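In response to reviewer comment 3 from the previous cycle, which asked for concrete evidence that the modeling workflow produces usable outputs, we include below a single protein chain processed end to end. The sequence was submitted unchanged, and the resulting structure tokens are shown without manual editing.
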Amino acid sequence: MIPYFKNKYLQTLLQCFLLGILVLANLQCVLRPSGDLREFESYFPHENPNSLIQKGKVRVTFLGTTSILLDDGETQVLTDGFFTRPSLWKTAFSKIESDPIILASVLEKAKINRLKGIFVCHSHYDHAMDSPFVAKLTNAKLFGSNSTINVGLGAGLDMANMEEFQIGKPIKLGKFVITVLESKHTPPFRILGKTNATDPDFPNITSPLIQPVKAFAYIEGGTFDFYIQHGKNKIVIKSSTNFVKGAYDKIKADVLFLGIAQLSLQPKQFQEEFFDETIQKLNPKFIIPIHWDNFFKPLDKPLEPNLKLGDDFDANMNALLKRTAKDQIQVQLMQGFETIDLF
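The workflow returned the following structure tokens.
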């Protein structure tokens, strides 16, 4: 109860004070992780093999969000390469830019020293922001949409070091063969009245994007999945929680890297269709969830689930585990810089 004050000014001041406390309490709640990794500890392999990669084998290192390093001992292939991970405060209220010190540190720690190609899932900042700078530091080629090419041009990357996606055309890098598949971004959502939906009048980045810029300058520019073959082994990397119906009708995968961000926030019918179009059609031996971690936290700290503000990690994982138990498919989570041998 708010006590009665004859002085209206003091009464208004007290109301504002109590409202502020309420807002801060709510913010503290929604800015917490949306799940507890301890509940899923048994799904982390904690292997981190240090031995040389045997001929014909493929090793993977998870670098947060949808940054996945594949390595066969001769050639490395990377998706996205988003390592700077600016804070929530900086992302929301100021311009952002790649941090060369962080990039160099990650490249060294992850032993990224024979990288041949970087494949960008789409051109939002949490995928494309660092990729051209990683390409420059490693002399790798950047592959992406026209929007990603403009991110690269803004970073000073030469066209000779970039290639625009051609849907369905295989790209050979060493023993890896990568085919780009058309996909869809996770359905749009609203936070604090703002949406991440693509403006139909401005669907692409149409000119070189020069840092520093606001996060919203990184326009999606189309979303893509990657079908990767290495000998007889097959991998699919799907960064976003959405699907193109029939896209996987003619392929199978041994390993599926599956984006689960906001999965449980979607209608039940969507969730079932999503699983049918991915897990059921690809029939993988095991699944590694991706895009589950809070990318406002630095990569040199243990990864935490996405914030309650816009996700529910526990519910996402439980939905996935329920479906994979039905299909008897193994699920493995990976921490930042964690490494496992896929084949």
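The chain has one domain: 38-341. We consider this sufficient to address the reviewer's concern, and the full set will be provided in the supplementary archive.
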